[in-house]
Amino acid sequence: MKQNYDTVKLNADQKQRIKAQALVEEICDRFNLHNYFGIFSVVVDEAMDMIYENPELNSDFASDFTFEQCVNGVCFNFKTNQHVFSTVTELIQMLTNEYNILDDGKTLELIFYVNGIDESELKSRQEKFKVFFKQKSTTAQIKQDHQKTEL
Question: Are both 94 and 142 inside the same structural domain?
């Protein structure tokens, strides 16, 4: 029988990110969700950026990063001991089916429907994803060119 719940503990050390990504990979293997690995890992990484790039993150930071199999798909949660989440990024909004900020910003719930996602929705997400990264790449290139001209 497949275990439908897992937790890894994270702390303020950014090296902990690998534990969360390893859990995402293991879940995709366990439930044969290889087609979703890219979306899951990008969203989880984006949530971890929100945590680890937070200038107010204390050294006693702790988080339970959990996976749970739900009726419609899978749910990943970051349950922290600090107020980290006040909003989510555009990328998280675009790639999740649902997200919830709970416990006054201490918990972020990321929900993905994997049973019966229709083909048109999947294609739409893929196109949005491509546009997002093309824009991000163009912006980074403009910044880089601007920095060169300042020198």
Answer: no
